[in-house]
Amino acid sequence: MEPYRTRGFPGKALTRGYTPAENVQAVRLVRKLRTELSTRHGSIQRVAGQLGYGLESVRAWVRQADIDDGEKPRTRSR
Questions:
Q1: DSSP 21-67
Q2: What is d(CA 8, CA 39) in angstroms, rounded to the nearest whole number?
Q3: Would you say 68 and 78 are in contact if contact means Cβ atoms under 8 Å apart?
Q4: Is the pTM of this model over 0.70?
């Protein structure tokens, strides 16, 4: 696994740059957990914590994947 990249600006907190593979992995794990537990509650937070990813990053990836896959109505990104 390659080391992750960080970006920072003077006076600002560092932000982490995630790879597309990390994005796909997180979305897949959230969806798998939702299916196994038969609930959507807490799955994003749990996966983000287990992987060490930012909660809001994972939440945004899952939201966009749901839109792209037609599970939620909105504008597709692809």
A1: HHHHHHHHHHHHHHHHHT--TTHHHHHHHHHT--HHHHHHHHHHHHH
A2: 36
A3: yes
A4: yes
φ and ψ of 17, to 5 deg: -95, 125
- Domain limits of the chain? 19-78
pLDDT over 60 (residue 5)? no
CATH class of 19-78: mainly alpha
Give the angle 24-25-29 at the CA atoms, nearest 5°: 120
Instruction: Output the pLDDT for position 27.
Output: 97
Cα separation, 66 vs 6, whole angstroms: 27
Q: Provide the β-strand partners of residue 5.
A: 17
Distances (CA, A) of 78 to 23, 24, 65: 15, 15, 10
